[in-house]
């Protein structure tokens, strides 16, 4: 209602000025994102292989690509692995990130500064540089991690090849992704924590609320908006993780057992040159993303309408 | 007394965690100064005692470093410039005007931000190659701007909304035009927001790997991340020269680390204010 009154009083130039201001952004988004999405949706209903790459018309094949996908057990293994990877990595990231944010708000100023600088360093590493150093840390023969683990009595890690089995391969990928994403989470949650009023917390403490009661009863509900957007972004980013897996495959094995959705689509598109199937899988990823974001978008719509 | 002890212990814990977290970065920089002969031993060297810069010389001597640097700089500048302009205009539109479709635009921006760019690269490849812009600055830049603009709009909108309209109106009462008031009053107050958005765009364009891998297939058009990957792979065909690889890696990372440390506070506060203000 108030928006309507604003419309009349605030907007002296009618609707044209804001639309003019929006045109460049809308144009670039349509070109860079909108057109590819639509192309991808259309192509996912076409047979688009090598022949079409060389100029043959792509025939529409209805749901054939999707049916082929649905009946391909290998794809469902990749989907399952990707979902597991995404959920575990995102929740571990959120958990550690939140704990570090709470730690920041309780420790001395110096300790907080040291921790923040360390997290910033990790955050600012370009992904390819980060992968390069982590691959070296996990190197079979000269890696610092095997060397240090080997010194722990009872653990035999000498020349252990982390990238040689899918499980340890994905564990390494997950550790690296967590390392890279935790800083963003902790800084966002910490910024949220600083907005929780001290008075309320003190009042609760006077009333006898324990530390964990204060966290679950007061702090968590107040920082929920930040937590939910951060978790959602992590889920989305971890579902489509590509660079880390691709670069680990450079260092280890390129076989299909080491694929998540990102590299699976990439291989369909580049090695197999099957754009139709690759598009169909992309649309599937898009669908999963939208499904995950749905609750968030809906609550946003509700808040905005209220 | 008990509380103080707890605080001390937690502070110590925080510092230990900080050391762990910074360790890979330290490791990269430290190893980049250690001579290859020493790195070849099976016992890791934890401090670069007899440091050398020969690893850096070796990395730069790789023929394509400077062409990759040039490519990265050109793409990054293009993306930063257009992103700031586009996002600034859009942020003004959505935080200073009320108009039909405003809410849909804000939600569309949020949703576009969630689209998996990694799932779109085939379409982007087809699109860019059909207009013969593979291996060009323009082709990649268009995709990057589209990927970065939503978040910068989201961030700048918090900054624009933070400048009170009253200030502008006061200036207008004093005889400035609406545009003049905006340029003299609001714009200077927005400078930190514009810098933060610019640096965000810089980081994305400088670090991006996937789209570059697909849209810049030829070696002459590589950006720095692609160059680094190629350098690592070339090194791995022999016994990997970790000293040089770490030097190369540091060369790619240092500009980013510096810029990032400068602006990080604004980045997070921008994101949080965007989220809180819905």
Automatic annotation (TrEMBL), chain A:
The keyword Lyase does not apply. InterPro entries: MetI-like, MetI-like_sf, UgpAE/MalFG_permease. PROSITE patterns: ABC_TM1. Signal peptide: none annotated. Gene3D superfamilies: MetI-like (1.10.3720.10). It is found in: Cell membrane. The chain crosses the membrane at residues 20-42, 82-103, 115-137, 167-193, 214-237, 275-297. The keyword RNA-binding does not apply. This is Carbohydrate ABC transporter membrane protein 1, CUT1 family. The lineage of its organism: Bacteria, Bacillati, Actinomycetota, Actinomycetes, Micrococcales.
From TrEMBL, chain B:
It comes from Salinibacterium xinjiangense. GO terms for cellular component: plasma membrane. Its main location: membrane. It comes from the Bacteria. It is a multi-pass membrane protein. It is found in: Cell membrane. This is Carbohydrate ABC transporter membrane protein 2, CUT1 family. Gene3D superfamilies: MetI-like.
């Amino acid at each position: 209602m108030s928006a309507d009154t604003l419309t009349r009083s605030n907007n002296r130039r009618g609707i044209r000025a804001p639309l003019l201001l929006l045109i460049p952004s809308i144009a670039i988004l349509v070109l860079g994102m909108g057109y590819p999405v639509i192309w991808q949706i259309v192509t996912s209903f076409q047979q688009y292989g090598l022949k079409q790459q060389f100029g043959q018309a792509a025939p529409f094949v209805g749901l054939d690509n999707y049916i082929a996908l649905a009946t391909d057990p290998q794809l469902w293994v990749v989907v399952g692995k990707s979902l597991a990877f995404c959920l575990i990595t995102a929740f571990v990231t959120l958990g550690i990130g939140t704990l570090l944010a709470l730690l920041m708000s309780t420790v001395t100023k110096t300790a907080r500064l040291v921790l923040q600088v360390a997290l910033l360093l990790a955050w600012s590493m370009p992904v390819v540089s980060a992968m390069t150093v982590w691959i070296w840390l996990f190197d079979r023969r000269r890696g610092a991690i095997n060397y240090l683990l080997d010194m722990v009595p009872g653990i035999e890690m000498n020349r252990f090849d982390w990238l040689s089995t899918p499980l340890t391969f994905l564990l390494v990928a997950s550790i690296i992704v967590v390392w890279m994403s935790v800083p963003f989470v902790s800084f966002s949650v910490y910024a949220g924590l600083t907005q929780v009023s001290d008075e309320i917390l003190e009042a609760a403490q006077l009333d006898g609320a324990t530390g964990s009661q204060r966290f679950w009863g007061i702090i968590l509900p107040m920082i929920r908006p930040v937590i939910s957007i951060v978790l959602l972004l992590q889920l989305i980013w971890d579902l489509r993780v590509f660079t880390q897996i691709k670069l680990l495959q450079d260092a280890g094995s390129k076989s299909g057992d080491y694929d998540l959705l990102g590299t699976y689509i990439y291989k369909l598109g580049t090695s197999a040159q099957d754009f139709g199937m690759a598009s169909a899988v992309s649309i599937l990823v898009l669908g999963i993303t939208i499904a995950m974001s749905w609750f968030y978008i809906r609550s946003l719509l509700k808040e905005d309408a209220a | 007394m008990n509380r103080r002890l707890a605080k001390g212990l937690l502070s110590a814990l925080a510092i230990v965690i900080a050391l762990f977290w910074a360790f890979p970065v330290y490791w990269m920089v430290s190893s980049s100064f250690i001579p290859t002969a020493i790195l070849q031993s099976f016992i890791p060297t934890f401090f670069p005692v007899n440091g050398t810069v020969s690893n850096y010389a070796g990395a730069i001597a790789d023929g394509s470093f400077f062409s990759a640097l040039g490519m990265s700089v050109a793409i990054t500048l293009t993306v930063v410039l257009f992103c700031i302009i586009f996002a600034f205009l859009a942020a003004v539109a959505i935080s200073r005007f009320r108009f039909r479709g405003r809410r849909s635009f804000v939600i569309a921006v949020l949703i576009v931000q969630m689209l998996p760019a990694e799932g779109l690269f085939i379409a982007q490849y087809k699109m860019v190659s059909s207009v013969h812009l593979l291996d060009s600055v323009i082709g990649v830049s268009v995709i990057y701007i589209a990927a970065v603009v939503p978040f910068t709009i989201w961030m700048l909108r918090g900054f624009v909304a933070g400048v009170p309209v009253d200030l502008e109106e006061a200036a207008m009462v004093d005889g400035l035009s609406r545009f003049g008031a905006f340029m003299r009053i609001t714009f200077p107050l927005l400078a930190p927001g514009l810098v933060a958005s610019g640096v965000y765009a810089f980081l994305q364009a400088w670090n991006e790997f996937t789209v570059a891998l697909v849209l810049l297939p030829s070696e002459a058009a590589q950006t720095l991340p692609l160059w680094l990957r190629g350098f690592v792979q070339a090194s791995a065909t022999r016994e990997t020269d970790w000293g040089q690889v770490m030097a190369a890696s540091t060369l790619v990372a240092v500009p980013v680390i510096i810029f990032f440390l400068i602006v990080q506070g604004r980045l997070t506060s921008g994101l949080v204010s965007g989220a809180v203000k819905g």
